[in-house]
């Protein structure tokens, strides 16, 4: 599908979800995107998509800062097996799928009475949200690990499905959701399961999936930025996942996007060390001798 066609489909879908009202002179005016006027189900569907492209734009501004890169800039074109235009097309296709499935998931909550919705708001305390975040993170990590690992170990699925994502030997932020549509569907189902098991409200899920989007994009950014707060709280980071995207780490570091616990438990954890690269930037290298033999 052409890039312009995919963008048109996504914009048409967004447009159909927003409320339009006729005012004097027959002019159409879009209702302002305020939390108080847009249903939570719509916000939960659209905001993570918006966050993806805003964060992508931020990382495009940071790309020229070579001293924080895990790979030289020129390697994006030399080593990657897919042009960036194709990456954008596939990401847009996945986001269309994501929006449709999210709409179906949230549809059952739209018919709640006003009283039920008010009660739901009152019961959603900060402690509840934190607890739901932790549950959703564990569920999502579990789904991602075992699906991701199986996609690597099943030769047919790797060659025909997951190898699409690994055309990016040198990851960049907006390639985070560059997947075969079938893998994209599996990821979306895992997200839906995390939402359901944790019992999140649509508003909470908007926050969670926006955060998940940022985390996944940061892991694929190819940048090791100083003071990155995500690196403080999560050992699963851009260097950890960069190891997985290299040929020597292809059977290791499957965990994503939050913790490394499943790699540690299942024996697929490849620790690394960061080294300054001549010419600027950093390079992640295997730390253990048995892993260094794979280089």
Number of helices: 13
Strand residue content:
5-15%
Sheet with the most strands: spatial strand order = 1-2
What is the makeup of the main sheet?
2 strands, antiparallel
Helix percentage: 55-70%
Q: Report the end-to-end length measured between terminal Cα atoms.
A: 38 Å
Structural class call reads mainly alpha
Describe the structure.
This protein is mainly α. It is 58% helix and 6% strand. The protein has 13 helices and four strands. Strands 1-2 form a two-stranded antiparallel ribbon. It has a two-stranded antiparallel sheet with strand order 3-4. The two termini are 38 Å apart. About 6% of the residues have low confidence.
List the helices and strands and how they pair.
Blueprint: H1 3-17, E1 20-23, E2 27-30, H2 40-62, H3 75-79, H4 84-107, H5 114-123, H6 126-153, H7 155-160, H8 181-198, H9 202-219, H10 229-233, H11 238-245, H12 261-266, E3 272-276, E4 282-286, H13 289-292
Antiparallel strand pairs: 1-2, 3-4
């Amino acid at each position: 599908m052409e890039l312009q066609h995919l963008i048109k489909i996504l914009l048409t879908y967004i447009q159909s979800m927003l409320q339009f009202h006729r005012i004097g002179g027959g002019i159409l005016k879009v209702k302002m995107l305020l939390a108080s006027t847009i249903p939570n189900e719509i916000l939960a569907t659209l905001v993570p998509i918006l966050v993806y492209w805003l964060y992508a734009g931020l990382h495009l501004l940071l790309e020229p800062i070579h001293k924080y890169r895990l790979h030289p800039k020129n390697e994006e074109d030399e080593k990657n097996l897919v042009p960036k235009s194709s990456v954008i097309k596939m990401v847009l296709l996945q986001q269309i799928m994501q929006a449709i499935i999210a709409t179906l998931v949230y549809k059952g909550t739209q018919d709640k009475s006003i009283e039920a919705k008010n009660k739901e708001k009152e019961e959603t305390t900060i402690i509840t949200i934190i607890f739901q975040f932790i549950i959703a993170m564990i569920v999502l990590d579990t789904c991602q690990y075992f699906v991701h690992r199986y996609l690597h170990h099943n030769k047919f699925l790797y060659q025909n499905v997951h190898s699409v994502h690994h055309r990016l030997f040198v990851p960049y932020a907006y390639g985070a959701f560059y997947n075969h549509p079938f893998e994209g569907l599996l990821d979306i189902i895992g997200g839906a399961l995390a939402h359901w098991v944790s019992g999140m409200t649509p508003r909470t899920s908007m926050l969670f999936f926006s955060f998940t989007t940022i985390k996944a994009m940061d892991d694929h950014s190819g940048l090791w930025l100083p003071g990155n707060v995500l690196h403080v709280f999560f050992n699963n980071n851009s260097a950890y996942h960069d190891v997985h995207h290299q040929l020597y780490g292809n059977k290791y570091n499957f965990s994503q996007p939050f913790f490394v616990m499943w790699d540690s438990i299942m024996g697929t954890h490849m620790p690394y060390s960061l080294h300054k690269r001549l010419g600027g930037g950093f390079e992640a290298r295997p730390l253990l001798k048995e892993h260094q033999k794979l280089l």
